[in-house]
Amino acid sequence: MSKPEAEFFPTGDVGWTRVAGDADGLTERILAADEARSVATRILRFEPGADTSPNGVQVHDFWEEVYILDGAIHDVTLGRTFAAGEYACRPPGMRHGPWTSPGGCTTFEVRYRAEP
């Protein structure tokens, strides 16, 4: 299966759901997903004060591209803060996080697998 076909639609029609894991303060809007391949396009929201430390450093087996729409997140491991307008492209196996967000943050993310 692949992500479903979708013409333009208001993203506000998609509800926010809690992100799986031990950290509180993270919600997501899944815009398109291929659950069989564990990939998705989503909007991720860090509530003010969110801290993903309980989830630890993240490493996954898919590509992930992230664009910060508003606010800022702080990478605890790197000791760096990233803000609106910044972008990351993470290949499979790249370690990142955990994150804190004192003032909150919203990102747009695309996750996909490279075809052999």
From TrEMBL:
InterPro entries listed in its UniProt record: ChrR-like_cupin_dom (IPR025979), RmlC-like_jellyroll (IPR014710), RmlC_Cupin_sf (IPR011051)
The species this protein was found in: Conexibacter woesei (strain DSM 14684 / CCUG 47730 / CIP 108061 / JCM 11494 / NBRC 100937 / ID131577)
Domain ChrR-like cupin as annotated: residue spans: 10-108
Protein's UniProt name: ChrR-like cupin domain-containing protein
Membrane spanning stretches: none
Record Pfam families: Cupin_7
